[in-house]
Write a structure and sequence with these properties.
Length: 167
């Protein structure tokens, strides 16, 4: 039971009605190799100072690496990057699949990995961490951004719908 009068499945179904963009949260592992995970629990938090908020599962591999490094990247995916979203949703990310999908990384001067050719890339330092049920809420102070072109990858009710024609 998730709460008074509803089940976990009902809660998930209700939240699935909220369309989100899709991002890849990234961090450098101890050996320097990049690791990413698909995240749609991402939002702006403040313009002054520039802060973003991202939620990761309490047991997510990236959470410990971000805490240790104190830095993370956010790459906002384009509508043609659905395969990348699926790849980064897997915990077993192999080099062959990454190469086949054409995933390219760019490391910032601080060594933060960012996925290339996205709608936007943000490099953040970890400003705060808060507990939130079975997740951790990470607040990132945005230190650098790169803005690209294209249309966003959307996630709605477990699928990737396309936006309608531009007006």
């Amino acid at each position: 039971m998730a709460g008074p009068g509803f089940t976990s499945d009902e809660f998930r179904a209700a939240l699935g009605r909220f369309a989100t963009g899709v991002t890849v949260l990234s961090v450098a592992r101890d050996d320097g190799r990049p690791f990413g995970m698909t995240v749609n629990a991402f939002t702006s938090l403040s313009l002054q100072p520039p802060l973003v908020l991202v939620c990761v599962g309490r047991n997510a591999l990236s959470g410990a690496a971000i805490a240790a490094r104190g830095r993370f990247g956010v790459s906002i995916l384009r509508e043609d990057q659905q395969a990348l979203s699926r790849y980064f949703s897997e915990s077993n990310q192999d080099a062959e699949s990454a190469e086949r999908l054409g995933i390219r990384w760019r490391a910032t001067e601080h060594g933060t990995p960012l996925v290339e050719h996205c709608l936007a890339q943000l490099e953040c330092s970890l400003a705060a961490t808060h507990d939130g049920g079975d997740h951790r809420i990470l607040v990132g102070a945005v230190e650098h951004i790169v803005v690209g072109d294209g249309r966003p990858l959307l996630f709605y009710r477990g699928r990737y719908p396309a936006l309608g024609p531009e007006s």
